[in-house]
Design goal:
Elements (H helix, E strand, L loop, with lengths): L15 E11 L5 E6 L5 E10 L3 E7 L2 E4 L2 E2 L3 E2 L11 E4 L2 E4 L2 E8 L5 E2 L3 E3 L4 E8 L4 E12 L1
Antiparallel strand pairs: 1-7, 1-14, 2-8, 2-13, 3-11, 3-12, 3-14, 4-10, 4-13, 5-9, 6-8
């Protein structure tokens, strides 16, 4: 999987899916979190895209200390004819007491889609995407295009 847009120019694999979340009230004091748990028995490749109304810092951490699971998001298969059931878990608004080990950080510009490079997540590990906005009442979305392979 090269990137989120190359899928449009090639055959869509059966094991490829998308998860999207929209938030209309991201504040400075309370960063926005998403949790990704990679499957135990499959490799998880993902491309993450974000678009925010206000600039923000975007960080990905490995092995955060979670105190609340958050709400699981429903994956949608990109191939609507596929009968694939994803093994990964992607959730919004988990709570934590520690971010974990930083594996990636960047800045998102206001109103410009930020496309992160493809990430291959370690099997069975938990990751956290953290968005710290520059202004209260920020709004935006995250889109995770993922593929699970042996």
């Amino acid at each position: 999987m090269e990137d989120i847009y190359s899928l449009l120019n090639s055959e869509i694999p059966n094991d490829c899916y998308v998860v999207t979340d929209v938030d209309t009230d991201i504040d400075i004091a309370g960063p926005k979190y998403w949790k990704i748990i990679a499957p135990e028995s499959y490799d998880l490749e993902a491309v993450i895209a974000l678009n925010l109304a206000t600039a923000a810092t975007v960080e990905i951490f490995k092995d955060p200390t979670l105190t609340g699971a958050g709400t699981d998001l429903t994956p949608q298969p990109l191939n609507q004819n596929a009968s694939f059931t994803p093994s990964a878990t992607i959730s919004k608004d988990p709570t934590n007491s520690a971010d974990g080990t930083l594996v990636y950080a960047t800045r998102a510009q206001a109103g410009v889609e930020l496309l992160l490079p493809k990430i291959i997540f370690d099997r069975g590990k938990t990751y956290q995407v953290k968005v710290t906005t520059d202004a209260d009442n920020n709004s935006g979305y995250i889109r995770v295009v993922a593929k699970e392979t042996n």
